[in-house]
Automatic annotation (TrEMBL):
Biological-process GO terms, alphabetical: peptide transport; protein transport; transmembrane transport
PANTHER family: ABC TRANSPORTER, ATP-BINDING PROTEIN, TRANSPORT ATP-BINDING PROTEIN
Organism (species): Streptococcus agalactiae
Domain of life: Bacteria
Record carries keyword Transcription regulation: no
Coiled-coil portions: none
PROSITE patterns registered for this protein in UniProt: ABC_TRANSPORTER_1, ABC_TRANSPORTER_2
Keyword annotations from UniProtKB, A to Z: ATP-binding, Nucleotide-binding, Peptide transport, Protein transport, Transport
UniProt cross-references to SMART domains, sorted A to Z: AAA (SM00382)
Record-annotated ABC transporter domain positions: 2-226
Stated name of the protein: Dipeptide/oligopeptide/nickel ABC transporter ATP-binding protein
InterPro entries: AAA+_ATPase (IPR003593), ABC_transp_ATP-bind (IPR050319), ABC_transporter-like_ATP-bd (IPR003439), ABC_transporter-like_CS (IPR017871), P-loop_NTPase (IPR027417)
Amino acid sequence: MLVCNHVGKTFGRQEVLKDCHFHLKRGEIIGIMGKSGSGKSSLARLIIGLDSPTCGSIHFQGKNYTPKDGRAQIILVFQDALSSVNPYFSIEEILNEAFYGKKITFELCQILEAVGLDGTYLKYKARQLSGGQLQRVCIARALLLKPKIIIFDESLSGLDPVTQIKMLHLLQKIKRRYELSFIMISHDPKICQAICNRVFLIKNGYLVEDNEFLKRACSTNCLTNL
């Protein structure tokens, strides 16, 4: 479905990503892990077309795609929820802003309840919510769009452990129902261990598949070995 073919990215004189290559199958969940500043988010921006690779290519469903094409099929849920919404919009407006017509209130209430909120939040302004609550709204918005691929860039990091578990179960359910594929960008080995089929590590700009990660993730924090 998605292939990153020997992709590299340079900002000025800094080579952030080097010869990154991976593929994502339909219905698969892969994890991308690495230390802060390792290039995880830069790779996500390349995949959705916010930035262009310095070298290499990215193919979606067998074709090169433009940023416009990528955004139509691939959604990124950002780490900083507040920066991705208008703080003066109501939650109802945020959930509806991607649609030509409004979703009915019942549907919006259902998706909010799935991420641990309820229908009363529809009238709240984004600036009235906590960081964790707003991140749940952003995840709900992504699920409503029903794309082919959703990239979660540290999107669960602002949630408490109980809600994280609920969200992981929800994501699995949505993935199966709509045959979605996910890319989980995270610094938390437990999140990747819980949901991912395969895990890649970014080290010194290179993306390396770690076939042993899922076996050892429960007993050690592999980030200390990067």
